[in-house]
């Protein structure tokens, strides 16, 4: 499935690394230094050799996990003696032979000996993925083979001494029953909820492997919910059962999975994100696709999965996550969008900046981004700008409360809580003024960070009062 690529001259690679370092924003310039995974597909004819990819990721990025779509030895061996861990995949077609009661374990052990044992522990393989989105298959035999194959693989790994490798499989969100989009109403599809997922979730609990899902807000949004999908200010979706207001589709999807698991008694099983991303190009006429949209989605997702922010029903949790994807894949079949989910060009320069590059040792200060992000950084900006963001006259309390709900996902809102310096006066207008300004300041005081769907305005008059000090 993966093609070997033309060699790249080492001198050229060294030069490209310098170019990439100069153009990729330092990690702490916009987001905290976040460890995150990435999907490394290579269905393209213009990509650098795997060894050069591994060397670049290890030396110049905070990416610490890579997910492969097969077990190509050139790719697995490329990550030997690097700090990057791998998730390696088996093809769907292998699962029935692994599930066989009589010969499945022997087949699984043979696969492990041929595809993993020669490379571990020099290459740190931590996940073995049994196929991909098996439950999309119309073949009932393949679906029935999934859990038995996972069990045989886990047993084979133990018997072959590879106890650090966990077994899981990525699921698409169609495993959930059709619903109204309210997370607390989510449940697995009928049949899956009684026959398939209880024993599968028990397998995950017993082995400590994560339950992996592939949430793709890109494939779920419509024109009315684009801001909701992209972590941009929006009215959100209110869950009347939990009294929570969701301002991001990704949060809602993750909490829907959690709710379905919890209904079966497995809310304690870890959830991993196998694939999630946003395309930078699509077919003509497709709205909501571009560099800014891709950056907004991935930055928002990174804050949820890697910063410890968590989701409304899973606060303070981190999620093992693999961004889709490392490179565009110009040979991939299907719509144009399928070819354009990459975050890096083949020369390692960024298609857009996610702040995943390590601080360059050649410079003592972060390189500024030529295209600052419209999403806020959790770190406050330095004071002294002389500009503040406040609610626009006439903005409704409903809109301002939505602004508070959204912004408090990214900035410290303790000052407006009871006992905080900015709690009084205790009203929506005052509280919104504080958090909207914190949101605006945290990302560098760009006018679009104070838009809040037309409810914010930038002022040069300091709104600070008493002990309530507004950052500027």
UniProtKB/TrEMBL annotation:
Which keywords appear in this protein's UniProt record, sorted alphabetically?
Disulfide bond, Glycosidase, Hydrolase, Plant defense, Signal
**Pfam family name, one:** X8
**Family designation:** Belongs to the glycosyl hydrolase 17 family.
The X8 domain extends over 387-470
Gene3D superfamilies annotated for this entry?
1.20.58.1040, Glycosidases
Q: Give the organism, scientific name.
A: Oryza glaberrima
Name recorded for this polypeptide = glucan endo-1,3-beta-D-glucosidase
Annotated region described as Disordered, given as residue ranges: 359-388
| Keyword Hydrolase in annotation | yes
Could you tell me the EC number(s) of this protein?
3.2.1.39
Signal sequence segment: 1-29
Q: Which reaction does it catalyse?
A: Hydrolysis of (1->3)-beta-D-glucosidic linkages in (1->3)-beta-D-glucans
A Gene Ontology biological process noted in the UniProt record is:
defense response
GO: which molecular function terms? glucan endo-1,3-beta-D-glucosidase activity
Under InterPro entries, the record lists: GH, Glyco_hydro_17, Glyco_hydro_17_plant, X8
Q: Where is the composition biased (Pro residues)?
A: 367-381
PANTHER family xrefs: GLUCAN ENDO-1,3-BETA-GLUCOSIDASE BG1-RELATED-RELATED
């Amino acid at each position: 499935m993966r093609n070997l690529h033309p060699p790249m001259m080492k001198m050229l690679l060294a030069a490209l690394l310098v170019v990439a370092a100069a153009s990729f924003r330092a990690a702490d310039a916009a987001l905290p230094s976040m460890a995150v995974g990435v999907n490394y597909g290579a269905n393209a004819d213009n990509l650098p050799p795997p060894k050069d990819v591994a060397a670049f990721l290890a030396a110049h990025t905070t990416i610490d996990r890579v997910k492969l779509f097969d077990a190509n030895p050139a790719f697995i061996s490329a990550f030997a003696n690097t700090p990057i861990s791998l998730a390696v995949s088996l093809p769907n077609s292998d699962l029935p032979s692994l599930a066989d009661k009589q010969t499945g374990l022997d087949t699984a052990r043979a696969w492990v000996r041929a595809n993993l044992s020669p490379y571990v522990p020099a290459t740190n393989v931590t996940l073995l993925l049994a196929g991909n989105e098996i439950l999309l298959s119309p073949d009932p035999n393949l679906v029935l083979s999934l859990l038995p194959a996972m069990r045989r693989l886990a047993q084979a790994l133990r018997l072959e001494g590879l106890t650090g490798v966990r077994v899981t499989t990525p699921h698409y969100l169609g495993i959930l029953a059709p619903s109204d989009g309210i997370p607390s109403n989510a449940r697995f599809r009928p049949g899956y909820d009684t026959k398939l997922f209880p024993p599968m979730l028990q397998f995950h609990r017993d082995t400590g492997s994560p339950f992996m899902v592939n949430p793709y807000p890109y494939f779920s949004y419509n024109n009315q919910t684009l801001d909701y999908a992209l972590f941009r200010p929006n009215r959100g979706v209110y869950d009347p059962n939990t009294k929570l207001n969701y301002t991001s589709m990704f949060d809602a999807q993750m909490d829907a999975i959690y709710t379905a698991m919890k209904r079966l008694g497995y809310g304690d099983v870890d959830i991993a994100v196998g694939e999630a991303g946003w395309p930078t190009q699509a077919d003509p006429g497709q709205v909501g696709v571009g560099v800014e949209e891709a950056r907004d989605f991935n930055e928002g997702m990174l804050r949820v999965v890697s910063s410890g922010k968590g989701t409304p029903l899973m606060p303070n949790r981190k999620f093992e996550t693999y961004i889709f994807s490392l490179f565009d894949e110009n040979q991939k079949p299907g719509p144009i969008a399928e070819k354009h989910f990459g975050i890096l060009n083949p020369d390692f320069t960024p298609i857009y900046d996610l702040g995943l590059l390590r601080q360059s040792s050649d410079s003592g200060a972060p390189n500024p981004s030529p295209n600052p992000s419209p999403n806020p950084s959790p770190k406050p900006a330095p004071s002294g700008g002389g500009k503040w963001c406040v609610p626009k006259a006439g903005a409704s309390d409903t809109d301002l409360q939505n602004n508070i709900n959204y912004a408090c996902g990214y900035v410290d809102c303790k000052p407006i809580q009871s006992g905080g310096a900015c709690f009084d006066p205790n009203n929506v207008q005052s509280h919104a003024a504080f958090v909207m300004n914190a949101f605006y300041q945290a990302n560098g005081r760009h006018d679009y960070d104070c838009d809040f769907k037309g409810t914010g305005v930038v002022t040069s008059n300091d709104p600070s009062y008493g002990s309530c000090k507004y950052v500027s």
